[in-house]
Here is the input.
Amino acid sequence: MSEIQKVGVVGCGLMGSGIAQVCAQAGYDTVAREVDQALLDRGVTGITKNLDRAVAKEKIGEADRDAILGRLHPTLSLDDLAECDLVIEAIVENLGAKHELFSALGELCKATTVFSSNTSSLSITELAAGTDRPDRFVGLHFFNPVPVMPLVEVVRCGSTSEESFRLAYAFAESLGKQPIACGDNTGFVVNRLLVPYMLDAIRAYEAGVASIPDIDKGMRLGCGYPMGPFTLGDFVGLDTLYHITDIMYDEYRDARFASPPLLRRMFLAGYHGRKTGKGFYDYSDDEPVVSDFVK
Ligand code: CAA
Ligand code: NAD
Here is the structure.
């Protein structure tokens, strides 16, 4: 299998924009594909701001920033992914949408292109089985915020060839990340443990255990977590968290993974966290305050 030179990132939201940034920073020619110009612009603006901040902090020079941005090719056209050696999918957490995308990519991309998904909770086996290249399909699960978090879960399913797995693992290392090898168990390592914790926090609030800021404060100051569970939920996106719980509950039929009623209502009401300005907290001002939905 040839060396990776050109990477395609599909979806330029919270995760895709971060993944595209670290790929371009690591020297890869990076095509970032979105479906909507405003969302693409938002993703590229976020990347540019991150790089400008790194220049201001003298972590990189202006010439480095310009070179990184020069390697980044934002596009609305799927056709621009045709020559990529590796495609990393980071679109919504929905099986049908991902299947549809990989099916289109299968017709478009080189036979040697390796496909990967950043899915949080969908089965890599099921995604791979819907493509024309189940042997060249891996999970590459990054963590939010991608430019900061060192971990990547590299997921191998029954059909993944050893060659593809090694290529993906080495690719994650080439980004300066620290990979771990995972089997295709829904939620892999981190979400299998993290998701029930976040859902338990919501259930604790529903049971009247303490206020949202106090539960957050408890976990920050009592356990040293950088963010409390509600701040983290808003950061991940309550839409994404809701989809993840649905998928994990469907897989395990274990009540630990079931969405608490409050999460479902917040998802339905469009309180998706930071990305929509309101979730458990309201982000309208500099200091977040508890949002009207849960006051
Ligand atoms: N994008 C890029 N860089 C960012 C950033 C972002 N969104 N947020 C912070 N940073 C950078 C800052 O620029 C700063 O960089 P320097 O060290 O170079 O100055 C550094 O991160 C630290 O930032 P701050 O001092 O402003 O803030 P902090 O110390 O509070 O750290 C944080 C911010 C790293 C986000 C920290 O709060 C944290 O680790 N939070 C928990 C994140 C977490 O648990 N992520 C996993 C989510 S679950 C998941 O991803 C899996 C899934 O499938 C759902
Ligand atoms: P997001 O909603 O911020 O971004 C998804 C983007 O994909 C949207 O901008 C949407 O317009 C775009 N999109 C949808 N269909 C597309 C297509 N066919 N082609 C190109 N773009 C398309 O979501 P996110 O938080 O970035 O999550 C993306 C994926 O990463 C999901 O599978 C999620 O489970 C996973 N993930 C999320 C986190 C997190 O903390 N949010 C962490 C790790 C993994």
